[in-house]
Design brief:
By secondary structure, the chain is α+β, with helices and mostly antiparallel strands. Helices cover 42% and strands 20% of the residues.
Length: 132
């Protein structure tokens, strides 16, 4: 069984979409094995988005992710990293396939409801950031 990390972002939490988003993963055969809700500190945000620190949108990412509660979810299942990214859809909701989480619940490229780890290596790093 492979594990992956999902963040239900502030825009989705504010719109009371936690249950619907978790349901999408569970109905696709993934199991929630750990979950927490927190208001991310600037330190957590900087660690999480360090890979983007040299990009012009870095400050926007930090402001957004620290703007409200985030639900960190550790999921488990066969081929979980790939499957969750497929369930989530493209980063830009306008380019996401029909019935993906971002198509259904995303607002724009930043407020796109969810984040998911993109590799097993990043799962480990991100779990350490969000779960300690």
């Amino acid at each position: 069984m492979e594990k992956t990390l999902v963040l239900i972002k502030p825009d989705a939490v504010r719109r009371s979409l936690i249950g619907q988003i978790l349901h999408e993963y569970e109905r696709n055969g993934l199991e929630v094995i750990k979950l927490n809700m927190q208001l991310p500190s600037l330190t957590i945000a900087e660690e999480h988005y360090a890979v983007h620190s040299d990009k012009p949108f870095y400050g926007t990412l930090l402001n957004y992710i620290t703007s409200g509660q985030v639900v960190a979810v550790l999921l488990q299942g066969n081929d979980a990293v790939r499957r969750v990214r497929q369930i989530n859809g493209a980063t830009d909701p306008k380019q996401a396939d029909d019935n993906t989480i971002r198509y259904l619940y995303g607002i724009n490229k930043t407020e796109n409801a969810v984040h998911a780890s993109d590799s097993l290596e990043n799962v480990e790093k991100e779990v350490a950031i969000w779960f300690g």
